[in-house]
Design goal:
Blueprint (H helix, E strand, L loop, with lengths): L6 E3 L5 E7 L5 E6 L8 E5 H7 L1 E3 L1
Antiparallel strand pairs: 1-2, 1-5, 2-3, 3-4
């Protein structure tokens, strides 16, 4: 189950932190944690995170 403040590694190798659930849709607001993009916001679907991302740490 996806939860706030979890870290995930995406298929690209990027690490994102889950911040909050987007209102009215199954997406999650996340922010990149890797150097060079740290803090950049991205919305990822729950299906994408569940299928392709790996929980980190």
């Amino acid at each position: 189950m996806i939860q706030k403040n979890q870290f995930y590694t995406l298929p690209s190798g990027a690490i994102v932190k889950v911040n909050s659930k987007a209102e009215g849709c199954p997406d999650w607001n996340c922010s990149y944690q890797d150097k060079g993009r740290q803090g950049v916001q991205v919305s990822l679907s729950e299906a994408f995170i569940s299928k392709f991302a790996e929980v980190w740490g």
